[in-house]
Amino acid sequence: MTMEHIQVVIVGAGPAGLAAAAEASRAGAQVVVLDEQPTPGGQYLRQRCPDVPQPDDAISRAAEEIKATLLRDLFAHGVEIRTETSVWAAFAGDVLAVQTLQGSRIVHYERLVVATGAYDRPVAFPGWTLPGVFTAGGAQALTKGYGVVPGRRVLVAGSGPFLFPAAVELVRAGAEVVGVLEATTPFQWRSGLGSAWRHRERVPEALHYFRLLRAARVPIRFGRVVTAAEGEGHVDGVMTARVDTRWRPIAGTEERVAVDAVCVGFGFLPSTELTRALALQHQFDGLRGGWIPVHDADMQTSAPQVFVAGEAAGIGSAQVALLSGRLAGIAVARSLGLISARDAETRMAMVRPDYQHARDFADLILRTFAIRPGLLQLITDNTLVCRCEEIAASRVRARAREWRDDLHGIKGALRIGMGQCQGRNCGRLMTSLLSDALATGEADLGMLSVRAPLKTISVAALAGLELDDE
Q1: pTM over 0.90
Q2: Cα dist. 47→9, 187, 263, 270, 293 in Å?
Q3: Residue 5, SS3?
Q4: Which residues pair with 237 in a beta bridge?
Q5: Torsions phi, psi of 227, nearest 5?
Q6: Does the chain have fewer CB atoms within 10 Å around its N or its C terminus?
Q7: Domain segments of the chain: what residues?
Q8: Residue 467 has pLDDT above 70, yes or no
């Protein structure tokens, strides 16, 4: 198999990847964007299913205009977007192994932008593995992209502003949303009010979703979480309870809600499997999702030829992702000598104020809705924390006493994180449990390693892959 040489490879066709491609290609770079989804746009700019009523509001129109503008830019500058294409390995010599519908191929890049986005943060509780329990992001992807509702009677629960648009999408798709449970209370938001006035332009967006839910008569309750999902073979109800400021369930406040689906969202984790496979330097940032690649103000990582953008650089927002992608694309063009350092700095100076403003707002939201330690009390000893290897919490807690802070020792002993999900579902759960059991910081436990294949590939594709000696 002949190796394909590409000047700039961008992994991820969400707002960050598309913006990086637009800036780099505008400077004259040859750019190829790889994305595993059928259409570009990522979660925020995901193409809507034609069977679902299309919203006609300022927020939706603005998102569609952003996507249309980016795609026009890319097509005008000859950017190739390869969908249904995933990167499953990274090798020395700036080489990626790529899986397409036709099989695997080898790609050599001069510059790489990792814009792999994020995924829902898993939160475990009794019954969370039952059919009918969804993440909020997964439910939104089903309804928005495919017109599929997860159930007839749906409860949305968790914490953070993403719960509102997720619930609205369910309503639009025809589900009966029986309620939205937000773990925090408005009283707990008071510490951020002093900073919120600087971002008052974001208030209409929040009010928009609030009004839509009120119009649909969806009750919104604060200071309450799902403590368990119940059912034989499928969810038929959930137990909920009020929580204190640390999110510890308050005895005597339990209520059962009859549902056939529950969508739980407690924020997101950066998708860093590729940056870890590239052996980049990482640092722990609990506010922005945990271990993230070290990068400078221009989004350049510890490897001079690799840049990062969007949620893979730390959880933020769609606006942060878009602007960080622009910075990365300009920096890529400068590093290739396509524009001068002075020209690059002029272009970046136009982006940096908006980027910092968006970053400040994202950090405010992340602090306000940060995970509280009481949530770990929901995880009983019998609760599975690793679906792939069927590992219960009791085994992790027992090994914590035996292995102490040897994260990789526990992983090897239990095989937790070695299944098909590669630790995406269980990795953060395990480190949170260990941190709680050992009374130590998650950063002190270290970062889980990853191995190829980073994505599921067929044996036939692997067998047909030829690597030369180089």
Answers
A1: yes
A2: 23, 37, 21, 22, 29
A3: strand
A4: 230
A5: -105, -20
A6: C
A7: 4-119+269-366, 122-266, 379-445
A8: no
